[in-house]
Amino acid sequence: METLKAIQSRNSIPFLEEPAPNSKQMLEIYKGALRAPDHANLRPWKFIEVRGEARNRLGETFLKTAINLGEDLSSEQKDKLKISPLRAPMLIILAANIKDHPKVPKIEQIISLGAAAQNILLGIHELGFAAVWRTGKMAFNSEITSQLGLDDNFEVIGYLYIGTSSGKEKPIPEHKIEEFVEVWS
Ligand SMILES: Cc1cc2nc3c(=O)[nH]c(=O)nc-3n(C[C@H](O)[C@H](O)[C@H](O)COP(=O)(O)O)c2cc1C
Question: Atom of ligand 1 at shortest distance to CA of 12?
């Protein structure tokens, strides 16, 4: 039941500050990530950790990607994009390492990485840290794949922004379970 309580109390927190989990804590979290369900054991998971100064490099990469995608950005929008990785002390780029398999389509491999990402969010919550999953224009396109130096078969499916909650947290939404669940008899 402890696990269920932790799952139920996870909250996405966009307002993040130092500290982020250290590398020893991340090791435990990645062990959890690698327990994601995975059809045919393809291991379609790649996590790229970006901390400190490297976040500026990621910001430059975002800007270059947007320009190459033909985005018409004002100088203000360019600056905003460039500093967007600084919104958290640490980010994890979620890149699906898509493999050709007769029985396992791309969508299943992306779902598996999504499950791994959720395991990371839960691990982070369990250790008292906070995070939010973001996508936007810097995901699901071949330009960002190439700008990140990944091979063509990779699909960037999003970014986990990770740190410590600054205290500004929304209430956990309450759902009517019956709106989402149907029981056949
Ligand atoms: C695949 C995916 C992509 C998302 N992309 C964004 C995003 O780009 N920006 C954003 O503000 N929230 C994004 N979200 C939503 C937040 O991560 C979060 O789920 C939402 O704010 C609701 O909060 P909760 O997870 O605590 O219910 C995304 C969620 C998922 C699953």
Answer: 26
